[in-house]
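Fold this sequence, please.
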Amino acid sequence: MPREMMYGEAIATAIVEEMKRDGDVIFYGQNLGMTEKDHMVRLFGKNRVRITPISETAEMGIAVGAAMTGLRPVVELWMSEFMLVAMDQALNEAPRLRYMTGGQVKVPLVFKAGYGFGAGWAGQHSNCIYHMMMGIPGLKVALPSTPADAKGLLTAAIRDDNPVVYLHHYMLTLDRGEVPDGDYVIPFGVADVKRAGSDVTLVATGWMVKKSLAAAEVLAKEGISVEVIDPRTIAPLDVQTIVASVKKTGRLVLVDQAPRHASVAVIIAGEVAEHGFQYLKAPVKMVTALDTSVPYSEPLEKFVLPDEDKIVRAVKAAMARQAATV
């Protein structure tokens, strides 16, 4: 039976359940397992739950080596920006080794980090840098938007024999939702239609899924039916589900918290241009962050980031273009 839990709780539940299921799963990072009273240390001991030095290069490098020996490390990196000092391990080492050994070596690890903290944390903590990871062969990237997806995708990530970057959105941490009990796995590369609709396809990731659903509610009151799709993983990306929706609606709005020219939205727009251009009745609209650093100032932050009003305006613009060409 499903039970209600917070997004952050669902993530913790997935880790605990997988560590109980598989003795090869280890969990470590800065500020973890600091005392004998730590909940995870009590459950699994200090051999499997460890505190590390403040060195992402060491943390992520250790994970690559541990994974090659048969362990399944989950590395707590706290914020995605902290990964930037260890991009060699994330982009050049972990994803390449299985290919370069002809499949003789597996690298089953999870780089877990929060991202997109749009709450006054300014230019070095509020970013969405997943675009630089989604195009790396051999590396998978998950962006859960609900508690259920948070659990199901993390379970899949831990069980995967390839490296996974699992990015959880900090602005969703306290959101509540129904989460299935027990063995719940969401396959990578399978998008989820969060809301069915017939007039406009709206594709969003992470926190923007929540904002897109809110915008869809507003638009429904005005007679506009919006289909909201959450890719859930951006590597692999489920292009087929998105194109099928565009074929039905004829219009596409892409919502992404990342800057316009470093976004998943641009990639999806390109895929639809190639595989679904003939279905479009209006130009693709993109609602993204501006191409600038996220400001500390709350009014400026709001100006830079997407919100419900901006999404509503983009959908209406797509509909207006259609009405003008009929």
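The domain at 192-325 is CATH 3.40.50.920 (Rossmann fold). The chain has twelve helices and 14 strands.
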